[in-house]
Amino acid sequence: STSLGSQKSLSAASCSNPEALKYSCLITTNYSCCIAEVNTVLRQIHKTIETHSTLTVFVRMAYRRQYYSFLPEAYGVDVLRNPALNKGLAFSKEERKTLRIRGLLPSCSYDLATQKKRVMGALRSMTTSLDKYVYLMGLQDRNETLFYAVITENLSEIAPLIYTPTVGLACEKYGHIFRKPRGLYISIEDSGEVGEILDNWPERDVRVIVVTDGERILGLGDLGAHGMGIPIGKLNLYVALAGIHPRHCLPVMIDVGTNNKALLGDWMYTGLQQERVRGEAYDHLVDEFLTAVKAKYGAGTLVQFEDFGNHNAFVLLEKYKNKLCTFNDDIQGTAAVTLAGIYSALRVKKEKLRDQKILFLGAGEAGVGIGNLVAVAIVEEAKEDGMDMTLDDARKRMFFIDSKGLVMSSRKDALAPHKIPFAHAVEGVSAEDGLQEIVSSLRPTALIGVSAQPKSFTEAIVRAMKDINERPIIFPLSNPTSKAECTAEEAYTWTDGKVLFASGSPFPTIDLGGGKTFVPGQGNNAYIFPGVGLGVIAVKALHVTDRMFLTAARTLADLVSDDDIDQGCLFPSLDRIRDVSANIAVRVAQIAVAENLTPPSFRAPDTEEAFFNFMKKQMYDPVYASALPPVSRL
Questions:
Q1: Based on the number of CB atoms within 10 Å of its own CB, is 197 exposed (0-12), middle (13-18) or buried (19 or more)?
Q2: Catalytic residue among 132, 234, 321, 419, which?
């Protein structure tokens, strides 16, 4: 360690020789140095080097044990081309001078509030949701902070534009609206070199990854590489709704081809022009990717599987859930938000979960995921009430209809493994019966649609549910809106406003006349996965457990206010969702601590309030930071 005087001499010599400033200048001070003297040296260096934009000067102050970057990440036009740094017309005069962008922007200067107003004005002038989506994605590519600031301030209006239902249309048109790549594409041709591809991603502190292979995008089927819109959209919700910093997020497309003939014949398709690769080669690629993620970013990196085909979704979740920090949102996230909606409905009905009989139209990832979590919740409820009930007993309260009819024990030999636990012996019903006949025979208290079969909840079926139940629970959850089993207006009209309703896509307020107005609740996974992800990341949990999703569902239901219920809405307002995410994150983190899933170094806050404040501090707030080098502010 050299003396401060020697450092000052070295610094002065460097400042007199501009060529020496082509290299990083490291100044190390000892614990006893005077901050005022250090600042004098720094100002002297900064005054000289501000004309040498290629330099990065780091000052290490031992007594603070920190590094300070005394020059910005970029200069000149590079600042304006970097969405993480660009502030557009919000750069101050001093920032424009220091960053060498004077003359590259109009002379006026706007604050963030004015910029948000301009964006919303432009957005509201557009007529189609797809145009709005393209505009917002363009904004994200230009000015990241402004993009997220606009979303967080206008969640109810913008969430349907950056995710369901608009993202479904955007994925269908992805090759036609493609402007700029975002995220990481890993194809089957990259097998054996996935680690090198991860090295190309510029951010090193990745904490959450959303990955898809595009085989089952919402209810739209195989969209191949055009499914990249889903990981991008999900991560935008992670940032906007749970405050996970955008630099910690990585969207990934595993491109193994597509079996969509229309896409294979479309010259604007952006993926591999071949049919899907399956079997050993596919499994090897996915395993190589997940292994590379763990090696590069750490075992605690959260990997969210999204919109994989039914077979791969269940297999991958089962294979990796105890090896990595991972979950499948289609299976577990959908289950949690649906369970929360059921809890809210039962609050109105003043009934127990174990007394319900639930009929599902659809027996894929979403449906079976809901069934499994509801079964766990029934067992927990019975235990709390001093009763013994097994998972098998709980599953007997649920019935599924797939493409071949009612899932029954007589069909066990031909059923996929994930359906077998729900294959019951049912008298008076045949597998060939239609939905209306099955409703009449089984007399369910709840009807849940996860089939992507639009209009399958007909007037006769909905009215039958009303005749069976004073307050029928009807959840048409299929996405996007075009795939919904019925609309909110149909459900409320056909039940004379008695339905307890939730949908997968948003619907407008329903006015039945005579003072009967209802606000349909959207069973949006966005209520669940951002909070779960935040809680897992904040405490560096090694795994994501089923109990976390059960707790998330209960927490979400507890946050539904009496005012929400009075309006007919089974979920909190989207405008409150950042607080919802923080509350869910706290509960998830507490489970991780209780189940010893956190690193030994993590020390949990002592009180509930302290834990909540800790979680809020982890959340990214989209506001502009000063773009001036810190040394100029000393």
A1: middle
A2: 234
What is the enclosing helix (H) or strand (E) of 347? helix 334-349
Catalytic annotation present for 238: no
| Helix spans in 495-545 (H) | 529-538
E strand or H helix at 184 = strand 184-187
Q: Which is catalytic among the residues 163, 238, 492, 620?
A: 163
Is the pLDDT at 68 greater than 80? The verdict is no
How far, in Å, CA of 29 to CA of 24, rounded? 16
Task: Taking the CA atoms of 36, 42, 45 and 51 in sequence, report the sign of the dihedral they define.
Answer: negative
> Buried (b) or exposed (e) across 212-248, using 16+ Cβ within 10 A?
bbbbbbbbbebbbbbbbbbbbbbbbbbbbbbbbbbbb
Amino acid 74: pLDDT: 80
617: amino acid identity, one letter:
K
Task: Tell me which amino acid residue 177 is.
Answer: I
Overall average pLDDT of the 370-390 stretch = 96
CB count in 10 Å sphere of residue 105? 15
Q: Is the dihedral of CA 29, 35, 40, 42 positive or negative?
A: positive
| SS3 sequence of 349-415 | HCCCHHHCCEEEECCCHHHHHHHHHHHHHHHHHHHHCCCCCCHHHHHCCEEEEECCEECEHHHHHHC
Does residue 234 have an active-site annotation? yes
pLDDT at 629: 65
Residues in a beta bridge with 361:
401, 449
How close are the terminal C-alpha atoms of the chain, in Å?
Answer: 24
Phi-psi label, residue 360: left if phi above 0, alpha if psi -120 to 50, beta otherwise: beta
* pTM for the whole structure: 0.87
Full strand arrangement of the beta sheet holding 405-406:
405-406, 398-402, 358-361, 446-449, 473-476, 500-503, 521-522
Report DSSP state, residue 23. S
Query: Cα separation of 313 and 306, whole Å?
Result: 8
